Each structure stands twice: as C-alpha cells, then as structure tokens.
Amino acid sequence: MAKRLALIYDRIRWEEKVLVKEAKAKGFSVNSIDAKNMLIDIFKDRIKAAYGEIVLQRCISYYRGLHATAYLESKGLKVVNSLHVSTVCGNKFLTSLALQQAGIPTPKTFLAFTPDAAMQVLQELKYPAVLKPVTGSWGRSVAPLKDPETARAILEIKEDTPGALNQIYYIQEMVKRPPRDIRTIVIGDELITAVYRHAPPDDWRTNVALGGKTTLCPVTNELEDVMLKAARAVGGGVLGVDAMESPNGVVVHEVNNTVEFKGAAVVSEANIPRAIVKYLVELVKR
Ligand SMILES: Nc1ncnc2c1ncn2[C@@H]1O[C@H](COP(=O)(O)OP(=O)(O)O)[C@@H](O)[C@H]1O
Ligand SMILES: [Mg+2]
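Above: query sequence and adenosine-5'-diphosphate SMILES. Below: predicted holo structure tokens.
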C-alpha cells in the first residue's frame, strides 16, 4: 500500500507544488492540509489515520507551523522538521546559541532587553552593526545601524511597537562580506547544493525575496564541513543553512526550517525536491 504523507501548508508556493509532485512520483499518497483549517483537539489520540505515516511541515507562519508540529509530534507522528529543530531555527537567538555552543563560526552576536542596554552593546561593537527581529524571514526589518543617532531612533521605534518580541534587541556585528552570501540546502547528513545569493542593486540584503539573484557556489571541503556541522547543531533535517564570507572564513548566520529553494533550484543541478522526498522515504522506513 502507498505510504501516506501529510503536507501541512498555509500557502501553496512553487516549492510545495514540486514537493507534492515528487512525493507522488516516489509512490506517496499525499494529503495536503491547509493549517488554517486544522481543528486541534488535544484529547483525540488516534490521528495517524487522518494524517499518514509522515508529516512535512511547510507553513510560512512560524508560530502556526510550530504549534501544528507540537501537536502532531505529541500524538506520535514523525514531523519534518521536528519540534526541536523548528523551535531553534525559528528564533535567531536560539540558533546563535546552538551554533556558538557547537563551535561553529558565527558572527559576534548580542542580545539586549532595553534600548539603553542595546546602545551600550553598540558602543562596544562599533558601527555599522545589524539589528534583527529574533523571528522573521525574507530580510524583513533586518536593519543596518550606521551611527548612534539612527540606532537610538530605530531602537525607540521598536520599543514602542506592540508585540513582546519587539522588546528583544538582537544585535550583530556587520560582517565584512562581498555583496553576496551563501545558501546551502542540507538534508540529513548531506549537503545537496550551494548557491551564492547576490544582493540586488538597491539593497544590501541578499534575500531572494528582496530580488537577490542566485549563482552556483562551489562546495569546498571547508564549506561542506561547516554547513553539515551547523545543520547538526540545530538538530538536523531539511534545512537551508546560510553563511557569509568574512575575512576569516565563512560564518553561519542563519538556519532556515521551512526552506525556500526556488532560487537555488534555478541554478543548481541537484534535484532539491527529489532529495527532500528521498529523505522522507528513508524516515518512513525507520
Ligand atoms: N551580520 C550581518 N552582516 C552583514 N550582512 C548581514 C548580517 N546579517 C544579515 N545580513 C544580510 O541580511 C540578510 C537577512 O538577514 P538574515 O539574518 O538572513 O534574516 P532573514 O531571516 O530575514 O533572512 C542576509 O541574507 C544578509 O544578506
Ligand atoms: Mg536569511
């Protein structure tokens, strides 16, 4: 009988379409479930019949995906990525801690709980620095802080913005990198592909969502080693591990949990969705 895969989504992107196609080609019967329609009853125990042997969690909303994963895992389903991995990767501070603890090169990173404390951090770190929301993606609100006056104003605006996470100030050294960074797709213990993401002419950030363009990046032993270790440090799974080329070698700045790979797929010879499905097949067998 065909193995059943549940794909949890909140918006079908190109990635979800190709994943469903590959999963069907590999013999899965695919149950695509819009998380917005999920009715979660914590007292209902036998939910495997409704979901299947394995779940691929692909929500864009971090908190939605996280809660759905917690529920499904608690009922004994295998979810990719796991609750632990989703928790760590969805929060840049938890990711930084995991990377640092595992001895992976990562940018100098600080956390502060008030604008005053953040200003003290910046005085030591020097300008320019980078301020980021601890949760978020697509480069949104990732801000270069170029001088104390602007920094103070941005920190004050953040302080006055509703939402508990706005009172958490995640600050990083501005890495002296070329106008590009490196996105790798790591699945289990394998680096599937690496691409450069070049910043668009009108932005300093390299996110594909902001117009960043991808080209192939050669996979050196050093790069492979660091990226695989970074993936392991957050718990492993289907991951987008991102790094920057600093004057002292690559530094990993982020690990993405529900990775977008359209930009990488355009230039890579690797079949990324096929590799993801292969990983799911192996997990089901275990
Ligand atoms: N410390 C840094 N130094 C230089 N550039 C950075 C730094 N942090 C982030 N960037 C740039 O900003 C982009 C977005 O930051 P990132 O931490 O990846 O957040 P997001 O989750 O929104 O993608 C990165 O892809 C990179 O181009
Ligand atoms: Mg990023």
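The first strand starts at residue 4 and ends at 9.
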